[in-house]
Amino acid sequence: MNILKATGLRARTLSELRDGIAAVSDESIFHHTYQYFLKGHILEHTNDFAHWAGESIEERALAEHLSNIDVYDFRNIGELRKELLRVIDGYLEGFPTPREAIAGNEFYFNETKILTFPIGLKAENLAEFLIAVKYIDAGSLYYHFYEARVRLGGGVDDFSAWIDRVLGKHGLAQKISSIDPFMHNIEGIREHIVEAVEEEVKKDMEVID
Amino acid sequence: MIHQYSGISPKGDLLLLQKLGEKLENKSFLHINSTKAGGGVAEILQRMIPILSDLGVDAKWEIITGDDRFFDITKKIHNALQGNPEVITESMWEYHFDVNKRNAELMDLDADAVLIHDPQPAPLIEFRKGGRWIWRCHIDVSNPVQEVCEYLKRYCEKYDAAIFSVAKFARAMAVDEFIITPSIDPLSEKNRELSDEEIQETTERLKIPVDRPIILQVSRFDRFKDPLGVIKAYRTVKKYNDCILVLAGSPATDDPEGEVVLNEVREYAENDPDVHILLLPPFSDKDINALQRISSVILQKSLKEGFGLTVSEAMWKGKPVIGGATGGIPLQIVHGVTGFLVHSVEGAAYRIRQYLNNPEMALRMGEKGREYVRNNFLITRQIRDYLSVWYSIEHKEKAILEL
Fold first, then answer.
1. Cβ of B337 and A41 within 8 Å?
2. How large is the ipTM?
3. Both ends of chain B: CA-CA distance in Å?
4. Which of B75, B196, B220, B273 is deepest in the core (most CB within 10 A)?
5. In angstroms, rounded to a whole number, what is the distance separating the alpha carbons of residues B178 and B164?
6. Residues of B near A (CB-CB distance < 8 A)?
7. Contact between A80 and A74 (Cβ < 8 Å)
8. Which residue intervals of chain B bear CATH 3.40.50.2000?
9. For the domain B196-376, what is the CATH code?
């Protein structure tokens, strides 16, 4: 679970957004990129910067460039920050100066404090895991499917890591880890995991005479 | 108390509340505002204090008192923070401070955490005895009168943290600033489930026909809520779909313009028998609840808005909503997902027609809206956030807190 904090920094123009990205804390960059999927619904974009570029200053091409950045390709926030700046600088050089956002639609840089806590559920086998995945809150799914990629490093989610390491089901682990994290909202991710696990559980239960 | 929210609030919120309650057990949490009844702050505190106590926190609530001059000054400060041109003289600020000083002498300010609501009691920070002090701003301060804002900042920056409702309301200040959106209580009279008989009692008493789709806006009669724009939109819709418009609001005793606007609205409606203008007495929560539940489409077509919690109230009842893209409304309405945001009368009319002609879409969006409110705008989430802020101030050095 996260508590939102304002940094007090805002951007009205693309140049101001650029300078903001260069100056804000790692926590703020993390919030506007990795935590985008915590919002629970997918819009046109994959991070807050792309969303603002597309919706508030209506720079569609820039929004596309920014949306295409795969945040899990980077080893740390510093590298991701550099890539964001590279894309924006390239855009500022090649295109006419974008318009200002209208009052109230500025970009507000925020960051979060993260609170983690055990939800008191444990799964010892795949059937228990299936029930748990259906039951847990969206925040818990986010923590294990999205946040884990950064926490554990190497872009691996908790679910496929556990299924692979503890249950030894490499095929299922592979199936879950290949769900595109950018193309679904959290409920969509839940559906895909449930579908894959259900199929595996059924397969395990089948008796061949 | 808290168990009443099982099956309503998200499980994770309830679990986290329980864990935070264990961590903060028997610690004192003092809330101070300037009114016991009336207004959103008092309304939510009345519900929040018993829940906090139930969680094991020693929750207390104090009210500062003052005379007419004091409240006249604080009303001016409030208006100035919202951007109205007001001049607060040095002697007015001094009086503001003096009244707070007198209150501080009468109050027990000794608590582990103190949450001061809005500018009226803000100077109490000068009389802090210990504990964590947090200033909670419920006002839209995105475009304030600078001098007033700067003066108040002297007090705010002495707190351990400040809390705003929306990120764009936050100011650049030398203090940690958290964002906590307001909330509705699903168990209150305004939001609880109603029986068919209760709903019927309201519609019959208020003489609202239920044979055609009802378009509803609940708001004060205030130009910023654009009641004339709502009537215009209804007239456009009426050419295509037979429907009824209900504009329901309570008289605001502190707003002399209210009656003028109400008369304008009545005049503009031209005795149309399908336009129902209802002036409900204060605390008509059950009637508002019933009106929302019989409506087909609910509008909050504001031109300027604080947070606009009536939108969440409507969404909680699974209703398709249309809101002006202003203040906190875009935080509640994800355009095209949990409702529609509009920028004009024409936009409002078009979206009403879309809903009336696509009942399945209206139902789907209404359901999404209800889930969105469940996850983001219920009172349990707001209490969770307050306790989390307090807990995070206690452990300031850590970015990730494990409970």
1. yes
2. 0.84
3. 23
4. B220
5. 6
6. 10-12, 15-16, 19, 142-143, 164, 167-168, 170-173, 176-180, 326, 334, 337, 372, 375, 384-385, 388-389, 391-392, 399-403
7. yes
8. 2-183+378-394, 196-376
9. 3.40.50.2000
